[in-house]
# Entry
Amino acid sequence: MFCFSHTIFAVNNVTSLSAYRGVPTFECIGLYCTFAGDSNANSVCSLYYKISTGSTWITGLPLWRCDRDKEYRGSLVNLSPATTYSILLKVKDIDGVPTTSTAQFQVTTWSNTFPEGQKISVNNQSASLTASNSGTASGYTVYRPALGMATIDVNNAADYCINITGDYIIIGNFKLTGAGKHGINIAAGCHDIVIENCEITNWGPAGNGGLDGWDYSNASGIYGADSNSKIIIQSNKIHSPRGDANYWGESGISHPSGPQAISFVESEGNIVIRYNACYSDSAHCYNDCIGGGANYGKGAYQKDSDIYGNIISYAWDEALELDSWLINDRIWGNIFHHTFVDISTAHTASPEGILKGPAYFWRNIMCDSWKSGIGYPYTFKLTGLDGALYYFNNTLVYPKAPANGFSVKGLTHIVKNITAYNNIFHVSGGAALDTYIKNEPTHFFDYDCYQADPLVNPLWETHKVIASLIEYDTSKGAFQYFPKSGMPVINKGCVIPNFMDSFVDTAPDMGALEFGGDTLRIGPQVSYDRTGFASQGNIIKKTPFSLKGFPNPFATSTVIRTNLVGAKAQAVEIFSLSGTLLRTLPLKEHSTVWDGRDNKGKNVSTGIYFIHLVNGEKQLRGKLVKIE
# Structure
């Protein structure tokens, strides 16, 4: 089943499209297009895309129409790095004389490889390091040990282990400990910063910072002061702060306060936080694991930011505090455990701070929540929203502690425009959808799984699954919740353009992981052609290498991707069922496109085909299905 069939293509006098543009990251592109007209506010902007050298357009998710800003906004996801994409926007008009307004342009995603210029070798030291030598877009200044890891232990004699005051800087391969405030401080206005392969621990004020024993400093492993942009935080272990946070209502204190793993105040956006492990223990908890300096204004990750592949835990407030604008922010493939709130998208008091959207949340796993002094925890905390939020294929696993699913905080905080498909909303003791969610007509939910009937709008959830118990297989890794064979969520989801258009069997499964599919790529072991971390205990499970096509099944073309890095991954071979070699395709940035033709340019027939990665070390194989 193909989702979003409820969308109506209609418009009233869209007179022009202008200022269309794309803002890339590694695997996504945020899209923007200003429109004029549409006085009855019912237009829809369809999205199509292809690799620039390809011949077949692929359907994406329609862009969100923001009537307040007179702008269509939306995102492309699941893209390949360092690849140029052609993008086509079409606005349909059937109110009067049928017309179609179009915009076409190209955008190139970021490369995983950053050009290196000046190299500054740093060895073990007890003094704080100031990274002030700015590089350029063509040559980043690199602060890194000559060999292996170097330790910077300031022993509480300095506020920061590393203070970044320049631009175009790479910080890598350090163990940072003993900071009196933040492990790494990024000065206001700094941009184009990469922080990778670091271990940050034991930061924050000595003595917990408060007379009652709680740490009120919000000291952070990594802290962005203000107006930062294009900051990449990847493959780091951030754990065990010096202080501790209180839980809600503990010792008569209403709100948690304490250390954080990663914080930004009011950034300019384009923040990427990927493949990090943010963890601790019950004696050194976080306020928020990844959050901001304030709940008001445009926010910490206000636009065009990605948070994915992280394992995030031990927060008495929120695992992710994503309050404020959330314009084209994308959150996917994360694991959350031992937190009170998993993801907060709270409102702010002023028009400057209102959540504008759209933001996207897909394939996240939430489990083992904490109950505090004020009652059940929330999975998704929502307040004051007139933008748009999309939730696809998330898995909520709360068999141990009572929990709520979607919860609106406060009677006056109106939340609108939530779209949810293919989720497993299993909670115990609380409510999957609270009353304020159920009563809002601008929402749309379908193809979701619940423990009990949510009793929602009769137009919603016509394809829901009610199952009191879902059994999971976690043998592939800690917190990797795969449905066991025979579970009612298998093949019961729907296709979501660009987000969930590749699946193992006849239809997508509900939830983050597919039966027979691959694990989530989680934590610092994911490689970027740079040195990574070894796993620590069972916190991180090494990701298996894979070779896959997207979409699969496909009709005209499919993107073949591998997560195997290195120069020896050179090409992909395509074979028929009988073993005949049909096509050899070169790899670029770990992906290639097959247009369904053989080496002679002839279209192959429908059926099953095998793919093989040409590589001197690994034997990776996969299967593709070509359909009409």
User: Anything to note?
Assistant: The mean pLDDT is 82. The helical segments are 435-438. The first strand starts at residue 14 and ends at 24. The domain at 547-626 is CATH 2.60.40.3080 (Immunoglobulin-like).
